[in-house]
Amino acid sequence: MVFVKPLLLNKGNADTERMMRTIKEEVIWLHEFTRLTEAKEVIRDWIAKYNREYVHLALGYLSPLEFEQKFYQNCCQEAA
After folding, report:
1. For the whole model, what pTM was predicted?
2. 54: which DSSP letter?
3. Beta partners for residue 65, in sequence order
4. Residue 48: which H helix or E strand, with range?
5. Which member of 23, 29, 30, 49 has the greatest number of CB atoms within 10 A?
6. pLDDT tens figures, 30-54
7. What is the spatial distance between Cα 10 and Cα 24, in angstroms, rounded to a whole number?
8. CB proximity list for 2: less than 8 A, separation 6 or greater
């Protein structure tokens, strides 16, 4: 009996690198921060907005908020 190891596509840290590039393009390179605390605050706010409002391919081009609303709407309709 021969065990054949399945082919795994190792992305490494590609997702992290892409996210860091997006943060740089949409936040860091567009601001001239005067303090580290200012940079942290702006980046934190952008990440919160990204997590709430940006459309994501994995969610069918819906924002996380829209996806959640649609999910619960479907659950409530099925339960009724």
Report:
1. 0.65
2. S
3. none
4. helix 36-53
5. 23
6. 999 999 999 999 999 999 998 888 8
7. 25
8. none
Assigned token pair, 72: 């619960």
Rounded CA separation 15/50 (Å): 15
Structure tokens at 16: 């992290």
What are all long-range contacts of 4-13, with beta carbons under 8 Å and residues at least 24 apart?
none
Q: How long is the chain?
A: 80
Question: Who contacts 43 (Cβ-Cβ below 8 Å, separation ≥6)?
Answer: 23, 27, 28
Continuous segment of H or E residues that includes residue 79:
helix 64-79
* Contact criterion met (CB below 8 Å) for 67 and 59: yes
